[in-house]
Amino acid sequence: MFLEEGLPRSIVVAVSRRNHRAKPRSSANASGGIVALGKFDALHLGHRELAFQASKAGAPFLLSFVGMAEVLGWEPRAPVVAKCDRKRVLSSWTPYCGDLTPGELHVEFSSVRQLSPRQFVEKLSTELGVRGVVTGENYRFGYKAAGDTKQLIELCEEYGMGAYIVSSVMDKNQLIENRGPTNTKENGQVSSTRVRHALAEGDMKYVSELLGRKHRLMLSRQGEIKSEGNKLSAPKSSLLNLSPKEGLYGNCSVLVDNTVLLHSCKVMIDATHIYVESDNDAASIHDLFIQDWEQIGIEFGDT
């Protein structure tokens, strides 16, 4: 067990290494890559740090479990990042990851739920061909979360994989006592729970600080989106991810792909609809509805 060369000592807690840097591979195949382990709902600054550290050792991937809520009987809830928008967010991490864009590897939760810590690491090594893993210092894995990072390092060493354990990215701007969620597992780190809490409070400046980018709300055209003059409206049923709480938000933009169609918009959210109003871009609203698109994005400012 030793520190990986090139990884800052303030970040890395413990490392086990076997091989050299691998070439990038497709997001559908992580064989030979370095996978970050965690729950990647919000794609926040802590998740970006894991991808960054993974990119130092090889081609970075985020490993996510599919169907966890269904298997565990959790109530369904909207994601922080819409599925259709994840590729854009990961592409924005490329400059932080040595010009490598992190890929995503999806594993059915039902296929790993009953695995012991050893069986899980064996699956990563033999079935998925992973060359190394990166995770946070508080990561637990295996059936009933029986494994910790110490065991992860030992098992990865046994199976010939690198294990890179990194310190949590701390929320430096807000104190859990007065701004964070009431969660006993919270120790002041950036987390998806904090992002959801900030969205529920409508604190978009705080959301941006946690994400490292502005929050983008995605809407499907399949909803009854309407335009009238310099306004458009859409039912909440057309939303593809989590919106801020009800209220008025200024300094927003409307985008198709990454092209801004409306600048400096006001957004109003009520119990059933979301409304966008622009004082200067009425023509752009008309242009928006004659274009061929499936989703539009509303990007919130920091106010």
Number of strands: 13
The CATH topology assignment of the largest domain is Rossmann fold
Shape: elongated
Estimate the strand proportion.
25-35%
Q: Point out poorly predicted stretches.
A: 1-28
Biggest β-sheet description = 7 strands, antiparallel
Enzyme class: transferase
EC number: 2.7.7.2
Protein name: FAD synthase
InterPro entries: FAD_synthase (IPR015864), Rossmann-like_a/b/a_fold (IPR014729)
Summarize the topology.
Blueprint: E1 12-16, E2 34-37, H1 45-55, E3 60-66, H2 68-72, H3 86-92, E4 103-108, H4 117-127, E5 132-136, H5 149-158, E6 162-166, H6 192-201, H7 204-211, E7 216-220, E8 226-228, E9 231-235, E10 247-256, E11 259-269, E12 273-277, H8 282-290, E13 295-299
Parallel strand pairs: 2-3, 2-5, 3-4, 5-6
Antiparallel strand pairs: 1-6, 7-13, 8-9, 9-12, 10-11, 10-13, 11-12
Helix pairs in contact: 4-5, 6-7
InterPro entries: FAD_synthase, Rossmann-like_a/b/a_fold
GO cellular component, one term: chloroplast
Pathway: Cofactor biosynthesis; FAD biosynthesis; FAD from FMN: step 1/1
